[in-house]
Amino acid sequence: MIAEAILKIKSDAEVSIDGNDIDTCEIIWHDNNPTNITKEQIKVAIQEIADAAAKKITDKESANAKLKELGLTDDEIEAFKS
Q: Among 29, 37, 41, 52, which is most exposed with the fewest C-beta within 10 angstroms?
């Protein structure tokens, strides 16, 4: 998710990451980090990505519940999604 966060900040960043924890990983900038992206900025972007993913799950659950309230079966809901 670190790489995804970096690319969210700068879509053409050229980077390698050694490790999975933003606090302890080594970030190797192949483009010399011209925009000076900090680990704090990356942490914010990671949280934004996580929040968006959680919202998507919540929205899907809400939509399914509303469709069930209308009387649709699980099979009908799945068929509707296709």
A: 52
